[in-house]
Amino acid sequence: MKGLGKNMKRIVILSFILFLAACGTDEETGSESANDADKINIVTTIAQIGEPLSVIGGDRVEVNSLMGPSVDPHLYQATQGDISTIDEADLIFYNGLDLEANMVDIFNEISESKPVLALGETISPDALLEDEEGAIDPHIWFDFHLWEEALFKAVEELKAYAPDDAEYFEENWNDYLSELEEVKQHAEKLADIPAELRVLVTAHDAFGYFGNLHDIEVIGLQGLSTEGEVGISDINETIEIIKENQVPAIFVETSINDSTIQAVLEGAQDEDAEVELGGELYSDAMGEAGTEEGTYIGMYKHNVDIIYEALTGEEAD
Hints:
- Helices cover 47% and strands 14% of the residues.
- It has 10 helices and 8 strands.
- By secondary structure, it is α/β, with parallel strands linked by helices.
- It has 2 domains: 37-186, Rossmann fold (3-Layer(aba) Sandwich), CATH 3.40.50; 187-312, Rossmann fold.
C-alpha cells in the first residue's frame, strides 16, 4: 500500500472490512438461507389468495403477496420490483376475471416459463355474476363456497409442483376446511337481519357474491371496477334508495377513498334520512398482516359482524 494515497488506503481498508463482514454473515445465516432456498416460492397478487396458501403450505412455502392492505387491485400497476419478484417465483397465483387488469399481459408472458393460475377462471362460468353490461364480477372470495373451490385448484397446483409434499399439503388443506366451516356458521347470523333492512350500500360493487349468498340487496355507488367515475346522478340515486328503504347505515371500504360515501351520507342526512356510517369493510384488500383481519377468515368474520351490528343495531355474538 506504500504507493497509495490516504483516500485510496481508506477505500481498500473499508472494502476489506465489508468483505469480512459479508463472510461472517454468510457463516451465521448460511443454514437459514439454505432452508429458505428449499421452500417453494409462491407469489400472489392479493392477500385473499396468499394468506390461505401460507397456512396450507406451512413451512414448505414462502408466500409473497404483491398487494397489501388498502391497495386497490383494479388500479394496481406492477413495479419493477414486482417484475423481479414474479420472475423469481416458482408458482404464481392471481384472481383473474379482470381484477388485476393491468397485470394480465405480464402473467400471460410469464406463464410460458412457469406455472401461473388465475383462480377465478377455474370457476364454472355459470356460477359467476355479471353486471348489467355483461362484465363479470371478479370478487368471488365473498362467496366462501366459490372461494373454497378456487383455493382447492391452487392447492392441487401446489401438490402437482411438489408431489413429495402432497400429503402434507392435503392434511393442512383439510384443517383449513374445518376453519372455513366455522366462518360459514359465523355468517348464519346474517339471516336474522329483518327483511326490510337487508340493503347493503357500499363504495363500489364488490359485495355482489356476498349479497347473493346471504340474500342481501347490494348497492355499489361505483361499478365492479373502481376505474369508473362517480357522478352526481349516482350519488342522488343512492340517496333516494336510502330514503325509500329507510337504510339505517352505509359503509366505506378500506381500499376505496371514502369521499363519495361521505357525500351520500351528508346528502341523505340533509334530506332528513336517519342513516349513519356503519363502519369500514374489507373488500378488495384485507387487513394488516399479523392481525385477525389480515386473514381471510378474520376479514370475513369482521365484515359479517360490522354489517349485522350496523343494520340491526344489535351487538354481534
